[in-house]
Write a structure and sequence with these properties.
This protein is mostly beta strands. Helices cover 10% and strands 40% of the residues. It has 4 helices and 30 strands. A 10-stranded mixed sheet has the order 22-23-24-25-1-2-29-28-27-26, covered by helices on one side. Helix 1 packs antiparallel against helix 2 (24-33). The longest helix has 15 residues, at 2-16.
Length: 434
């Protein structure tokens, strides 16, 4: 399946991202070598690179478990707001930072993350709201930059850095390459932590590997180890929980979707056959401190009320957890959806599925896909999410943002993004102290 998707996407990606650094052969090598969950993320990331904008459309059909259809209206704003609401989240488009109620600021470098794609958090706010760590690209390699909102100053970290996450006390963790980027060898790096944004880094994971930082669970840093066939010395694929330097234990997960607000639990995908290059519908809830499996849920069996099992066979992707609710992406084949889960009474359950179809009577072809959902209020009812439709059957690719009210079954779509633009909602880490 990955080869089929690769063959369908390759010519389109080449045409649309020729201006980006890097080469297709490396992307293809990395894609074919990852585990199933990484394959899902890469498919979405590649799709995001070839997507451009979501044109204004009068209405969409959003199927939801039990509650019928979501209605969608369009607004002139880039980041829309539901009727009676205000935009509650800052965002970055290319090199412009927009803060609701505060205007626009120009960043020193454009938002770019060719190795990560647009399916994850590319801009994250520090807990004290002073700093924003965002992904950029310079000299043929990734580079995290820190924007100081108080001083209006933009400071880059070292070249070859990406995947930054904040701890509640202001510590910053990130991945840094162990050497220059090359077409001939895997791009491996170590995990570093700064106790403060401008402080000296400490090595928390010094064995170079293909790591992706998922976030902090209290004082433990969760790190995804991606599959790397050409890395005989790298750790086995999966999820690691890092304590202070030297304290490492493995969690029974394949990937990380979301971390509970109290830092006690982590939700992620699980593939019972680690080396199998295919999606798994299994979702696991794990206690971080002990590695205890709290629950394993098969999304296909959890779905009911007219939800087809095939829409849930792709398992779970990046998500956001607030209160008792988790909203996350899922994707398989030529379409994607949002899944909303509830964790209550020590049990995980599937609350609803949001699936996008085309305008009435029209075919959408390949796609659409959701990416990087984020709760934007304390009531856990408003969700902002990017929506992407690849080019198909002579139609241009489309990309824009939706803000949805999960309880009222209504969404508002933002105006079109310019072709080739990168966009990221600025995430607000919902994490406890260390």
């Amino acid at each position: 399946m990955s080869e089929l998707l690769d063959g369908r996407l390759q010519p389109r990606i080449r045409a649309l991202v020729a201006e980006e650094p890097g080469d297709w052969s490396e992307v293809r090598r990395r894609a074919s070598g990852h585990a199933s969950v990484r394959s899902r993320r890469l498919v979405l990331a590649l799709a995001a690179l070839l997507l451009v904008l979501l044109l204004a459309v009068p209405a969409f059909g959003l199927g939801q478990q039990l509650l019928g259809l979501f209605s969608v209206r369009t607004r002139a704003q880039l980041v829309p707001a539901l009727p009676g609401q205000t935009v509650a989240v800052p965002y970055i488009v290319d090199r412009t930072l927009v803060e609701p109620g505060r205007g626009r600021r120009r960043l020193a470098a454009p938002l770019r993350a060719p190795l990560l794609g647009q399916d994850g958090p590319l801009a994250v706010s520090s807990p004290d709201r002073r700093w924003i760590a965002y992904e950029s690209w310079q000299g043929g390699a990734p580079r995290v930059r820190l924007y100081d909102l108080f001083a209006d100053r933009d400071t880059p970290l070292a070249g070859g850095t990406q995947s930054a996450v904040w701890r509640q006390d202001g510590a910053l963790a990130y991945w840094q390459a162990a050497g220059p980027r090359s077409k001939r060898r895997p791009y491996l790096g170590v995990v570093l932590v700064r106790s403060r944004p401008t402080g000296r880094p400490t090595t928390w994971l010094g064995r170079p590997g293909p790591y992706l930082l998922a976030g902090w669970a209290r004082s433990r840093l969760l790190v995804i180890v991606e599959r790397c066939p050409g890395c005989p010395r790298a750790a086995s694929p999966g999820v690691l929980a890092l304590g202070p330097p030297g304290a490492v234990h493995r969690l029974p997960l394949t990937d990380v979707s979301a971390i509970s607000p109290d830092g006690r639990y982590v939700l992620g995908g699980f593939n019972p056959v680690p080396e199998e290059d295919g999606p798994s519908p299994l979702v696991r809830l794990v206690e971080v401190s002990t590695g205890r499996i709290v629950q394993t849920l098969d999304l296909r069996q959890a779905g009911s009320g007219g939800i087809e099992a095939r829409w849930l066979a792709g398992g779970i992707g990046p998500g956001s957890w607030l209160g008792a609710r988790i909203v996350a992406t899922t994707a398989l084949g030529n379409g994607g959806a949002l899944v909303v889960l509830t964790f209550s009474g020590g049990r995980l359950s599937l609350e609803q599925v949001i699936r996008l179809g085309g305008a009435p009577g029209a075919s959408t072809g390949y796609g659409p896909f959701f990416s990087a959902p984020l709760f934007v209020d304390g009531g856990t009812g408003r969700v902002a999410v990017a929506l992407s439709v690849p080019p198909s059957r002579g139609r241009a690719g489309r990309r824009s943002l939706l803000e949805c009210d999960l309880s009222r079954a209504s969404c508002v779509g933002g105006r079109a993004l310019a072709r080739g633009s990168w966009l990221a909602l600025v995430g607000d880490p919902v994490q406890p102290g260390p």
